[in-house]
UniProtKB/TrEMBL annotation:
Residues 1-27 form the signal peptide. This is PEP-CTERM protein-sorting domain-containing protein. Keywords: Signal. InterPro entries: Ice-binding_C. It comes from Trichormus variabilis NIES-23.
Amino acid sequence: MTTTLFKTLGAATTLAGIIATAGSASAASLSYTTSTNFQTTDIVDSIIGVQKFNSSLGTLQKVTLNFVGELSGNAEFENRNSRASTIEVTLNANLSLSQPDLEPQTPLLLNPENVYTYQVAPYDGVTDFDGASGRRINTLAATKSTTSVFTDTQFLQNFTGTGNIDFLFSAVANSIVRGSGNITSGIDTLAKASITVTYDYEEAQTVPESSAVLGLGLIAGLGLWSQRKQNWLKTSGS
């Protein structure tokens, strides 16, 4: 009988331990993405904000910041030479994403570029950016991205709180149209930024009160003991 009681209390203690362990922390992650619209360059300190981490979710461990820069462009040119020519169109810009409180890990810098080559005929006598000697192109594009990881406590604090953390986006265009001899040309460069912030954190689960854990353990133990006592009495009486 005494041995049975000890076994029962042991089972209750084990149950209480399982319940207490259920409150341990687990890893989780959360991402937010935001972007600007395409704007004509040059762009100086355009604000782009992203949601901060809500500290009620747990303890922030790491922040991963992904910065994507995109260019879009339109170009036109006319070859005014008396012979055929090769025209080269380069879409290019220097992009930056900065946040004063995150230096020296920002600014993040990008230099997306794409080069297009066209063969055009001798001048057709009309400067209309059309025909055999001219072109209009509305499909120029270039993209580049970079990633930075933050684990320093001071940086993590800047990402924590309510509202947004604001970044400054700038873009300076270097696009150009090149060709031998005489050409008439023009080019427009537009830029946009997209940022994705991923928060890795320890998610703390609710830990039961110690008295509640003990109570559950004792209730379970008494229930097991009572059941075994009844079984023992039945066995003794038979």
